Structure formats: C-alpha cells, structure tokens
C-alpha cells in the first residue's frame, strides 16, 4: 500500500468527530441559567472555550466556576446586553480574552405578557428590544471581526432563538410573538448577506422547555430593566399552554434537549444549514 493510500485508509478508519468544537470560541448571552447555560456546558464538553454574558452576576459566576472545575476554559462578562452601548464592549472583552469569536448564541430573554387590551407601550417595547434589537446589535458589533479578510476561513456561526409563539402566535404574548417572528426574518437576512463571508445564521424555535421562564411565577425570580421589574414564569392557570396532550412526545423539553440542537447548529454537522428555523418542540403544533 502506498503512503497516500495508507493515510486515506487510516483517515477513513478513524473519522474525526464532527461534533467536536476544539479551540472554537463560543459567546452566549443570557447563559447564567436555562437554555444558555445548558448550551455552554454541552459546547464546553466538546472542547469549546466559553464566554458567558448575563445580568445575573451570581449565577453567571457559578456557571463559569462549574465549567472551570470541569476543566474547561470559561469567563463571564456580565451586564445588560440590551444597553445600546454594551454589545461592542462585550465583543471587545471576548476578543481580548480569547482572540476570536466563532459562535454567537443570542439567548438572553424574558417574557412580559399581557392581554392585548392591557398591553402597554413599555411592556411591548422592552420585549422587542431584548428579542430583536439586541440580537441585531450583537451581530452588528461582530461585523468588524467577521468581515476582516484575515478571518475569512474561520468558522463563524450565529444561533438566534425563536419560539412556537413566533411561529403560531400565543394568547397574552402579542409582544413576544411579534418579536419571535421578527427574529426569523433577521436570521434569514444575516444568512443571505453574510453567507459570502462564510457566516451561517440559524434560529431555533423552542416549544415548552422547562426553565425559570416557564415555571410558575416566583416573586424572587425577576429581571429588572431600566427600573421595570419583569417577573419570570408562566402562571399555573395557563391551562392550554400547560396541557401536554398536543406535544407529540408527551412532555415538556429539558434544557439538555434544547442544547442538543444548539450543538448541531454550532458544529460542522450543519455546515450546509443556514437561514433556517429548526423547531425543537417535541412535536407541538405540527
Ligand atoms: N423556556 C422556553 O420554553 C423557551 C421557549 C422558546 C424560546 N425561549 C427563549 O430561549 C431563551 C432563553 O430562555 P430560558 O428559557 O433559558 O430563560 P431563563 O430565564 O432560564 O434564562 C434567561 C437568561 O437571560 C438573562 N437575561 C435576561 N435579560 C438580559 C439582559 N438584558 N442582559 C443579559 N442577560 C439577560 C437572564 O438573567 C437569564 O439568566 C430566551 O430568548 C427565550 O425567549 C425559551
């Protein structure tokens, strides 16, 4: 057997693992808990270096400590990602620490529900800001780094988060449903404009994933944005939403279920997938 053939047969016998992310730098907003944190843990276990952002410093630090204890490289840069001046600062901090960014996951978010007749400008506005303006500003802040011809060959992937509310509408969520539909158009536009720079951009529309956001409201669990106190949680009496009979697999999703899709979209397994919205819903609203 020639050297070349020997090399080839060796390569075929031991294919590299397409789920590995060794040396890749992943930045996740809202990663102190929930879907963002589970994604940080899974992607770190595949070799990625992790930069965490969140408003909640205590939980963000705990998430970073757990990653470091497990032998992974991680740090957090806390702050309100909705602040218009914050995204460029966050990108700069990650570049100073790790030298590059390969994957951006825009996960920071919250609900601020009200029936249409009770919705206020303030509640509508803050939800549009976190789920549309903020991902746009994060992506805009990456332009310089990702347009740089020196980074042409580097892996560059964005994952945004939509929801069944954005795909199908949802009672009490006129603000959230509007924003989560909007993020799909944003995603497709980034995929169309930046494909030529080697950037892939996708959205995941989750159904019911069991996190603080979907547990029954707890007075201690809230985000405070510009003086607005925004409670987390979905009331227990949201009967239609809490009924699992229309979920094909018959249960809410776990954060691990949610993170699995993130790994697929961050890894070379999805090298030819861009501009799409993957539904991770357990088969709800088929
Ligand atoms: N859980 C679900 O069923 C579900 C379904 C569809 C979509 N989503 C989306 O998934 C994403 C993550 O939600 P989750 O369920 O993990 O919620 P979560 O409440 O567990 O985590 C969200 C995190 O975002 C952080 N955050 C909020 N505003 C921030 C800001 N301005 N700056 C920095 N950090 C901020 C919070 O502090 C929190 O740690 C959100 O975009 C949400 O809309 C969730």
TrEMBL record:
UniProt cross-references to PROSITE patterns, sorted A to Z: ADH_SHORT
Q: Which UniProt keywords apply?
A: NADP, Oxidoreductase
InterPro entries with a match to the protein in the record = KR_dom, NAD(P)-bd_dom_sf, Sc_DH/Rdtase_CS, SDR_fam
Q: Which GO terms describe its biological process?
A: abscisic acid biosynthetic process; fatty acid biosynthetic process
Any one GO MF term held by the record is: oxidoreductase activity, acting on the CH-OH group of donors, NAD or NADP as acceptor
Location of the Ketoreductase domain: 24-211
Task: Give the family this protein belongs to, as stated in its UniProt record.
Answer: Belongs to the short-chain dehydrogenases/reductases (SDR) family.
The protein's name is: 3-oxoacyl-[acyl-carrier-protein] reductase
